[in-house]
Design goal:
Blueprint: H1 19-28, H2 32-44, H3 55-68, H4 73-81, H5 84-89, H6 104-112
Helix pairs in contact: 2-3, 3-4
Length: 122
C-alpha cells in the first residue's frame, strides 16, 4: 500500500485518510472475521471521506461495524440511522423546519434495507 499510496501512512491526509491504518488492522487483527464484516458493512452502508467531514465520523462508523456487524441487522440499521456520518451522507444535516428534507427516510429504506419500490411514500 505504501509503495502505491505514499500519502496513506499519515492519518488526516487526503485522499487516503486512514486507509493504511485500516489495512494494518485488517492484516494484524486477532479477530479477522469481525474485521472482514466491518469491511463488508462499510461497502453496504456506503459513506466516505469524499463527502463526510470530519474523517473521525467515518472511523467511528467502522468501529460500530466491528462491534455490531455480526449481530442483529435491525439493530445495526437503527444504529446507522443515528450515525453522524450516515446523517451527513444522506443530507439529513440540512433538515430543519424551514426546509424539510424528506429524502432521508426513503433513501435509508431504499439503499440499505427494503430496496427500491418495496414501500409506499405517503
Amino acid at each position: 500500500m505504501m509503495r502505491f499510496h505514499p500519502w496513506a501512512w499519515r492519518p488526516g491526509t487526503l485522499p487516503g485518510m486512514g486507509a493504511a491504518e485500516w489495512l494494518h488492522d485488517l492484516v494484524n487483527t486477532k479477530r479477522p472475521l469481525e474485521e472482514k464484516m466491518a469491511l463488508f458493512w462499510h461497502g453496504i452502508f456506503a459513506t466516505g471521506v469524499s463527502k463526510v467531514d470530519p474523517y473521525d465520523d467515518v472511523m467511528d462508523m467502522i468501529v460500530k461495524f466491528r462491534h455490531k456487524g455480526m449481530g442483529d441487522f435491525r439493530e445495526l440499521l437503527l444504529e446507522m440511522a443515528k450515525d453522524p456520518a450516515m446523517i451527513y451522507w444522506l443530507d439529513n444535516n440540512d433538515n430543519h423546519a424551514d426546509a424539510v428534507n424528506e429524502n432521508w427516510g426513503p433513501e435509508l429504506l431504499e439503499l440499505f434495507s427494503m430496496g427500491v419500490g418495496k414501500f409506499h411514500r405517503r
